[in-house]
Amino acid sequence: MREQRKRLIGVVTSDKMDKTVVVAVTTTKRHPKYGKVMRLVKKYKAHDEANECRLGDRVQIIESKPISRHKRFAVVSILDRAK
What we know:
Layout: E1 7-14, E2 20-30, E3 37-47, E4 58-63, E5 73-80
Parallel strand pairs: 3-5
Antiparallel strand pairs: 1-2, 1-4, 2-3, 4-5
């Protein structure tokens, strides 16, 4: 049986490449010693076949097979358009 692929929601921070967008995914994590809630931001390069995504869009990305050296995710849908 196939394992579930990761699905992440983030904001497009760059759309300058052809068929590629950079998506910043924010997660919260508690510090192991001090207990303070930290906000962690990780950037993923995601495949955007139709070049539909624009700067500031909120998108959902899914884990996929390696598309290039750094691309391991693909855009599934655009949840919110940038204003």
